[in-house]
Every structure is written in C-alpha cells, then in structure tokens.
C-alpha cells in the first residue's frame, strides 16, 4: 500500500477551518456581552442610589417600576467609567418598586426594594405666660434641631430653632390686648400646635412729674429705640441694619449698658459683645 502524505492544500483547508472557528467564537462572545450588575441603596429621605458594574464606557439605563400603582416606569441613565463602575440617583415616592439595569440590550437581575414613608414630625407645643407686659416669653417643644415659626393673629412674629432636647423659647414683642398664638414647623407649615390665647397688658402710666422735671427728662432722654433680641441676631448685624454701618456695633453695647443703668429690664452686654434671644437692648439713633 502506498503511503499518502498531506498535501499543502490539506494544510490550507485546516487553517481556514481554524480561522472560521476563531471568528465564530469571537462573534458569539461579542453578541453576548456580560450583563451589568445592579445594587440599590435607599435613604430615609426617599433618595435612591443605583450602582453597579458594566463594560467601560457603556451607557447604563435603570428602569424603575412601581409595584402598587399603575404609574409609568421611571428611568435614569449613567455611563460606566474606565473601571467599569457606574452610579445614578433618583428621588422616589414611598412605596415598593422593582428595578433593572440595561446595558447594550443586556439586562441585569431584577432588584426589588421599598422606599419608606418619612417619619412623622414630633408634635408641637406652645406655652404662653400669664397676662404680662411685652415682650412675651414663649416656650414649647418641637422636633430636635427643627426651625419653628411663631404666629400671632395669623402673622409671623419670630422664628427659633429647637435645641437637641426639642425645647425652644422665644421673646416676642406684641401690642397690648388679646392675641391668638400658634407655632408651626418652618419646613412643614401645615404641622402646627394647638392655638394658645395670650394677653399683653398695657404698660403702666408714667408717674406725674413737674414741668421742670419733664423738661429735664426730655432733655436727658436718649434718642433711639428699645429692641428685643431675636434668634440669629448679633451686634454688628443690628448695627448694619439700624445704624447703617456694622462697625458701629460698640455704640449699641454702650447705649444698652447706659439704659441698663437706668432700667433693670435692659440687658448688660459684656466685653465679649454676646447677645441672646429675648434680651432687651437699646438701639441708638443713626
């Protein structure tokens, strides 16, 4: 029997077959890219963060579908960075959802999550003193760290921030007579306290003086106005507002200390120039 040796043509056919197999392998690999991954993190405020991995440079679209309402699905998009990581965020209403990330028409596994309802704010309370002259020292409780606004007869008269224990206090200057007071959250004005009635007494009438004493008093009476310190007040701010120059804050300190020497209801401002809500100070004329 004659032994047959492979011809060059046989080698050529084998090489073509190998190239075809390699091309088919690469084509199938390109047609089935790796699906993206998806992770979901929910913040109590309702903000949802979507993240994961995908081929670098690929656009990733996240489809979010509510499970308890017929609302249309929401969608948010991002791009994978050079490391193949992507990140996107969206604010959603409370409720259950399902989400799926899609990159190059390949979808990730479905992820289900729920956005919780926001925690209810602490009830507001408001306490007013017995009938007294202005200013009224009000107090109450609220959500710790929250800003509240005090309303008198439907108009705002002051705002204050509750401390870490949820307590707050504020001095308000009201005209004499009966007033209807409530307090509301600044960020949620529909959440209010129960209304509280307060009465401001008229200031006592000055004692009769002789004509000479009246003339001397008028001559010696300082020109300016009394002022009750509010939250977020400081001397340079008041100097800029009432005197037109923040550098004149020392005039308010000196005028207030002079007024305190005549009337104990005025505060005494120390050298550190600190003032506190509810204190009564004197603003000199510009």
TrEMBL record:
Pfam families noted in UniProt: Big_6
All residue ranges annotated as the Bacterial Ig domain in the record: 117-198
Protein name: Bacterial Ig domain-containing protein
Origin superkingdom: Bacteria
Database matches in InterPro entries: Big_6, Ig-like_fold, LysM_dom_sf
């Amino acid at each position: 029997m004659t032994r047959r040796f492979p011809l060059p043509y046989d080698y050529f056919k084998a090489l073509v077959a190998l190239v075809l197999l390699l091309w088919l392998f690469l084509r199938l690999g390109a047609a089935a890219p790796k699906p993206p991954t998806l992770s979901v993190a929910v913040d109590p405020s309702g903000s949802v963060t979507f993240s994961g991995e995908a081929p670098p440079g690929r656009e990733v679209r996240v489809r979010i579908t509510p499970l308890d309402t017929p609302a249309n699905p929401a969608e948010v998009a991002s791009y994978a960075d050079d490391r193949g990581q992507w990140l996107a965020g969206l604010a959603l209403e409370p409720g259950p959802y399902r989400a799926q990330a899609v990159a190059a028409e390949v979808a990730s596994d479905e992820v289900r999550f729920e956005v919780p309802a926001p925690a209810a704010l602490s009830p507001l309370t408001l306490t007013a003193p017995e009938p007294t002259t202005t200013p009224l020292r009000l107090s109450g409780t609220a959500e710790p760290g929250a800003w509240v606004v005090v309303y008198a007869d439907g108009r705002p008269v002051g705002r204050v921030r509750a401390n870490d224990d949820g307590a707050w206090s504020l001095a308000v200057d009201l005209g004499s007579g009966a007033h209807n007071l409530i307090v509301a959250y600044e960020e949620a004005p529909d959440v209010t306290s129960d209304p509280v009635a307060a009465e401001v007494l008229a200031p006592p009438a000055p004692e009769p003086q002789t004509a000479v004493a009246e003339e001397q008093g008028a001559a010696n009476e300082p020109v300016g106005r009394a002022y009750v310190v509010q939250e977020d007040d400081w001397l340079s701010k008041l100097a800029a507002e009432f005197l037109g120059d923040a550098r004149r804050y020392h005039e308010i300190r000196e005028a207030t200390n002079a007024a305190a020497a005549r009337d104990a209801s005025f505060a005494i401002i120390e050298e550190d120039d600190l003032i506190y809500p509810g204190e009564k100070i004197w603003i000199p004329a510009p």
